[in-house]
Amino acid sequence: MPKGRIFEEAVSLLRQAGYDLPPEFDDSRKLILDVPKANMRFILSKPMDVPTYVEHGVADVGVAGKDVMIEEKRDVYEVLDLKISACYMAVAALPSYDSKADIAPKIATKYPKLAAGYFREQGEQVEIIKLNGSIELAPLVGLADRIVDIVSTGRTLKENGLVETETMMPITSRFIVNPVSYRMKAGQIDDMIERLARVVEGGSGQ
Ligand code: PRP
């Protein structure tokens, strides 16, 4: 499970799907949470690391953003769009920025591979600067000309005086599965996918 803002939505989805997750899930700093009744163990990692845990098989299944899936390109199955944590990836800049006048723009982002792939497809030559957060700061202090980042409410862009110049792709969280686990625990995993899918499609998971 991804720690942070996606966690709450994912827990709510699992509860709707009939998983009886204890109140501990609502307020804990623990990185491993056991639910013996459901025979489940939850591992909480940084969102960007979820596919790594699943690829290595220390987690059978996981919840990962489409942004993370594109950036990390891990060997896992993406089996269900959970349709939670909806946001989108965009390019943004200061309103005064003139992209036509810039021959080798610097792009700040937490997603270097995703951004490089996008600009390659657009046929635009750019220099990528990898940052770990607060990406909106980069154009304000002259570190980069543009940014590639997640937009959710648009508040961070607005409050920092940036404008969106290109909308890249919609992002939601996905349910992912380790390929070996899927073979070994097909019954359990399929049951989980079905229960989640029913909630996603608007019914009850049970
Ligand atoms: C994300 C993203 C934007 C912000 C967008 O950052 O990178 O900065 O949220 O949300 P908004 O459109 O609702 O303002 P996050 O808060 O996850 O932290 P980070 O900057 O450290 O990555």
UniProtKB/TrEMBL annotation:
Cited SUPFAM superfamilies: Periplasmic binding protein-like II
Subcellular location: Cytoplasm
InterPro entries, sorted: ATP_PRibTrfase_cat, ATP_PRibTrfase_CS, ATP_PRibTrfase_HisG, ATP_PRibTrfase_HisG_short
One of the GO biological process terms: L-histidine biosynthetic process
Signal peptide per UniProt: none
Subunit structure: Heteromultimer composed of HisG and HisZ subunits.
Function: Catalyzes the condensation of ATP and 5-phosphoribose 1-diphosphate to form N'-(5'-phosphoribosyl)-ATP (PR-ATP). Has a crucial role in the pathway because the rate of histidine biosynthesis seems to be controlled primarily by regulation of HisG enzymatic activity.
Family per record: Belongs to the ATP phosphoribosyltransferase family. Short subfamily.
Record-given protein name: ATP phosphoribosyltransferase
Organism of this sequence: Alteribacter keqinensis
Gene: hisG
